[in-house]
Amino acid sequence: MSFYESDKAVSEYLLFHYGSAAEVLPYDFGPVDALNYPVRCISECLYPEALPGEGRALDLGCAVGRSSFEFARHFTEVIGIDYSHRFIHAGQTLVAKGQLNYTFRIEGDLEQATVATVPEEINRTRVQFEQGDAMNLRPDLGQFDAVLAANLIDRLPEPKSLLEQFAGMVKPGGQLILTSPYTWLTDYASKEQWLGGQILDGKSIRTIEAVTSILSNNFEMVLRKDLPFLIREHARKFQWSVAEATVWRRKDA
Ligand SMILES: C[S@@+](CC[C@H](N)C(=O)[O-])C[C@H]1O[C@@H](n2cnc3c(N)ncnc32)[C@H](O)[C@@H]1O
């Protein structure tokens, strides 16, 4: 079974996406600027000049959907797609009810009960979640004014293939938000498929170089920044990571 179908993943990602600061980081010290990552993927990366005021957005690898709901502040139609049935079911419940009860780990078998809540001011009816494969999307998905792929590329078997498909997904003038900590693992992709993190022909390859080379035919980079994030495993264990966020404007056809 994939990690993303497990109880642990559902709990950790609901907390990561919807948890309060006090729930995620119950200390008066620590990396507070790494909180609310799925919100910041939109609030710090969406390129405001290009916003149509309505339009369509796609959140690819949306997990339990917080960035999809944040997209709904700006776009009238938002589609969130994830390979995990459990994550999509959680997202669909949040669309229908606006909240979802869950528990997260304190230590060992000790859990704390809480509720994930979609902010009241967000129009949830703008969002739909569907299970799907980013490597094999349904052909009638259409094009989008904005596409987000947050922490997805290093979890795919053929990340280059997805990067090559973005030009077909983003409307001319639209934007692609790509974030990743570039955690390449052979659990997900063979080394031949890694976009960086290797020495080839005596040269150190960094992921940003490959991403830029693949996307530059159809996109221009409009933003590049570090985006820290914090995933709580239990009250005394966290993953602190620093994603690189790049935002790409689709060149006019
Ligand atoms: C590291 S998580 C990131 C989730 C979310 N974007 C975030 O930033 O919290 C990777 C996500 O990609 C999803 N995923 C993995 N392979 C996928 C695929 N082929 N198609 C769609 N989603 C996939 C996983 O289920 C998981 O939700």
Features:
253 residues; alpha/beta; Rossmann fold; 7 helices; 25% helix; globular; binds S-adenosylmethionine
Folded structure, characterized:
- The protein is α/β, with parallel strands linked by helices and 253 residues long.
- It has a single domain, classed as 3-Layer(aba) Sandwich (Rossmann fold).
- The chain has 7 helices and 11 strands.
- The chain has helices at 7-18, 21-24, 37-43, 66-71, 85-97, 159-169, 207-215, and strands spanning 56-60, 77-82, 99-107, 110-117, 127-131, 144-150, 170-180, 198-200, 203-205, 219-234, 237-250.
- The strands form 3 sheets. It has a 7-stranded mixed β-sheet with strand order 5-2-1-6-7-11-10.
- Helix 4 (66-71) links the parallel strand 1 and strand 2 (77-82).
- The longest helix has 13 residues, at 85-97.
- The model has no long low-confidence stretch (mean pLDDT 96).
- The protein binds S-adenosylmethionine.
- Residues 4, 16, 38, 61-63, 81-84, 87, 133-135, 150-152, 155-156 line the site of S-adenosylmethionine (SAM).
Summarize this, please?
The protein is 25% helix and 34% strand.
Topology:
Elements: H1 7-18, H2 21-24, H3 37-43, E1 56-60, H4 66-71, E2 77-82, H5 85-97, E3 99-107, E4 110-117, E5 127-131, E6 144-150, H6 159-169, E7 170-180, E8 198-200, E9 203-205, H7 207-215, E10 219-234, E11 237-250
Parallel strand pairs: 1-2, 1-6, 2-5, 6-7
Antiparallel strand pairs: 3-4, 7-11, 8-9, 10-11
Bound molecules: S-adenosylmethionine.
